[in-house]
C-alpha cells in the first residue's frame, strides 16, 4: 500500500529532517516544534490554487478534525511564497499550516523529485509523509494524480498507530 520515496529519499523508519520555514502568516515553524506533542502529516504539493492541489488541500481541510482527533497536525509545503499561501488558505478556508519552501531545499532534503510527464512537462512531486510524535517517518505516499488518496492513506496510518 505504501509507496516510498525514490532512492536517496526519506523512507519509513527514517528520522524526518527538521526544517524551519515561514508560514502563510509569516511566522516560522519547525518540525521539532511538534516533536513529543503531535504527529505531523507533511504533504508536499506542486502549486497553490491549481486543480489537483486545491482538491488535495480541500480534502485535508474537510478531514482536518479527523487528523486532530488522532493527535496530528497537517502541514502543506510548496515553493510558493507566503503571500500566495495566505491567499490560497484564505480563499479555501484552510485551517492548517502552509509553509513556503522557496528554493525547494526541504523538498530536496526529503527526496521529493520532480515528476516528468509528457502532457505537463516537469512538475514538483506530490508526496505525503506521516511523521510520528517521536519524529520517525511512519508512512510515505506518492501520487501526483490521486491527490485525495493522500488523506485517506495518512488517516489510515495514524489510526493504526494511535495508542
Automatic annotation (TrEMBL):
Its EC number is 1.11.1.24. It is an enzyme of class 1 (oxidoreductase). It is found in: Thylakoid. Coiled coil: none annotated. The active site is at 53 (cysteine sulfenic acid (-soh) intermediate). GO terms for cellular component: cytoplasm; thylakoid. The keyword Transit peptide applies. Thiol-specific peroxidase that catalyzes the reduction of hydrogen peroxide and organic hydroperoxides to water and alcohols, respectively. Plays a role in cell protection against oxidative stress by detoxifying peroxides and as sensor of hydrogen peroxide-mediated signaling events. It comes from Dictyobacter arantiisoli. One of its GO terms (biological process) is cellular response to oxidative stress. Monomer. Its main location: other. Residues 10-163 form the Thioredoxin domain. InterPro entries: AhpC/TSA (IPR000866), Peroxiredoxin_AhpC-typ (IPR024706), Peroxiredoxin_BCP/PrxQ (IPR050924), Thioredoxin-like_sf (IPR036249), Thioredoxin_domain (IPR013766). Belongs to the peroxiredoxin family. BCP/PrxQ subfamily. Gene3D superfamilies: Glutaredoxin. The keyword Disulfide bond applies. This is thioredoxin-dependent peroxiredoxin. One of its GO terms (molecular function) is thioredoxin peroxidase activity. It catalyses: a hydroperoxide + [thioredoxin]-dithiol = an alcohol + [thioredoxin]-disulfide + H2O. Keywords: Antioxidant, Disulfide bond, Oxidoreductase, Peroxidase, Redox-active center, Thylakoid, Transit peptide.
Amino acid at each position: 500500500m505504501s509507496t516510498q520515496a525514490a532512492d536517496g529519499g526519506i523512507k519509513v523508519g527514517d528520522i524526518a529532517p527538521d526544517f524551519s520555514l515561514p508560514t502563510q502568516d509569516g511566522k516560522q515553524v519547525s518540525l521539532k516544534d511538534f516533536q513529543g506533542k503531535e504527529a505531523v502529516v507533511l504533504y508536499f504539493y506542486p502549486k497553490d490554487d491549481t486543480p489537483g492541489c486545491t482538491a488535495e488541500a480541500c480534502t485535508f481541510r474537510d478531514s482536518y478534525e479527523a487528523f486532530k482527533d488522532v493527535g496530528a497536525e497537517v502541514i502543506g509545503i510548496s515553493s510558493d511564497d507566503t503571500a500566495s499561501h495566505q491567499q490560497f488558505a484564505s480563499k479555501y478556508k484552510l485551517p492548517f499550516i502552509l509553509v513556503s519552501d522557496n528554493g525547494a531545499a526541504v523538498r530536496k532534503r526529503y527526496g521529493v523529485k520532480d515528476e516528468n510527464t509528457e502532457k505537463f512537462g516537469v512538475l514538483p512531486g506530490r508526496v505525503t509523509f506521516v511523521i510520528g510524535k517521536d519524529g520517525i517517518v511512519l508512512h510515505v505516499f506518492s501520487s501526483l494524480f490521486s491527490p485525495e488518496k493522500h488523506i485517506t492513506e495518512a488517516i489510515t496510518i495514524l489510526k493504526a498507530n494511535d495508542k
